Fold:
Amino acid sequence: MRVYILKRLALVGPMFLGSTVLIFVLMRLLPGDVVDQLIGVEGTLSGEARVSLRRLLGLDAPLHLQYLRWLGDLARLDLGVSLRTSQPVREALAQRLPVTIELAVLTVGLAIAVALPLGVVSALFRNRGVDSAARLFGLFGLSMPVFWLAALLILGGASFLHWLPPVVYVPFWQDPGQNLRQMAFPAIALALSLVAVVMRMTRSAMLEVLNQEYIQTARAKGAGEWAVVLRHALKNALIPVVTIVGVQFGYLLGGAVVVEQVFGLPGLGFMLLNAIYQRDYPVVQGTVVFVALFFILVNLAVDLLYGVLDPRVRYGHD
Amino acid sequence: MATTEGLAAALPAVAAPRARWRLNLAAVRRSPLSLAGSALVVLFVLMAALAPMLAPYAPEDQIAKRLSPPQAAYWLGTDEFGRDILSRIVFGARISLWVGVIAVGIALAGGATTGLVSGYFGGRLDILLMRVMDVMFSLPPIILAITLTGILGPGLTNAMVAIGLVYLPTFARLARGPVLTVSAQEYVEAARAAGAGAGRIIGLHVLPNVAAPLIVQTTLALSTAILAEATLSFLGLGIQPPEPSWGTMLGTGRKYMELAPWVAIFPGAAVMLLVLGFNLLGDGLRDVLDPRLRP
Structure:
């Protein structure tokens, strides 16, 4: 187990370093001169001013030096400042992060609460009515565009419930009730595809586990059917389910961009998208680096959890 | 030389998969869900192909009052510029399918080549290529696509390239795995001994063995690529107005949604049905071609 943990931890550094290279290269794909992009519409600079601006931004240095300098800034947690508001990017990230994390936690919680029972029931009544209905629901969930579902929720809320989520964002610690009313639609919109994925995974994992000999043994010992299903089967079926939730986390962050935009939640996705619209590249770059690090750490957590849950990994066949 | 060519070609890997293929297609026909999926996909393909004949109006013509509700003359109503929504959805099928096919084509061609070459030659090249793929996995796909289109600028071509690049590593990993096992098989050794080159061995002996998972993945990737295009366009980073992309229609119509729900409902429904079609088909194909991956 220790070897496994060490091996997995050793991967984090190179992965993050690799993603910084990728992001650095991406940002250099900007068409045209970066200086022109930075000064935008009011871009009538003399040749001399242009040269000094390039020097100021370090754009006159060779690419690898530019990269190393940027990496040095990153190591000092300096992500630069917004071109529009002059706010340090790090500060902006710290403000936006709680919103996205709350949305993600609510979404995952909601999805698991719905998907696990659905998946178990679907597996227990394989090929019966309930199972077919659940599988069809799963396929619809996978095919539903997040932005459409969000639009339908708003339409449905307005015409059937005569209710719409409050527009101005209120943090949880200021007014939990108001905050949760605001988060309900976004979390539901984001959760549906996750419900579909988790349900399908639970179903197939349960089907596989229920065929194992130790389930027969448990039944033969006289364990009640519920004990067999919950204690013996579900516990083992959860291993792949945990992994799939982790893998889906990336999709969740992508979906959060859309949902935050539609519902006006000031989270990371909202910030990234608006920075892209406004060509505020330091903010884009900082946010993407942060998301990459976050995503790498989530995957690390999932792999470690997997190690704890799966005895085959725990006792080191690897 | 002719004899070695003949020998390499006569090895069993080629004949066996073809026989299995015929059987599998029959099985697809027996599964009601994948039949429904194929029907949906065929329906949309026909709609795209016959768009000028099917659409009652030209997609960019302002033919009626703005935001007219659905009625006999305009079945699905009109949008914020008074354009016929049905006609725009019919023409929009062309864009969705086109972007999906090209993006997945980029991902499949690039990814499968990378995976096959990486797995077949192994060594340092393998390590290098796979690490690059890992790094691409370190960013959530939609975030990577949004950033790419944000940097390259919005538009049809950039959206296709961005979506294609984002899904490339999945195909690379998928293709690489089986190559490692297949290229250690005796018949591949035999082909190599008979003088077959790397290209021939990969094409004739390795590729047929990785074809099944690649086909399943291609079908499923079409659904995710179409969703990705709709999402990018919805956010204003994909297809630009006045082109009739379903995502753009919903994105620009959203402001009028509470006044005229049809502006948002129908384009979204079109996206969902087409994506559902590919998902049903992909699921059905997976059950038949690759039972190990069954969900």
Chain A touches chain B through 52 residues (CB under 8 Å). The CA atoms of residues 64 and 70 of chain A lie 10 Å apart. The radius of gyration of chain A is 24 Å.
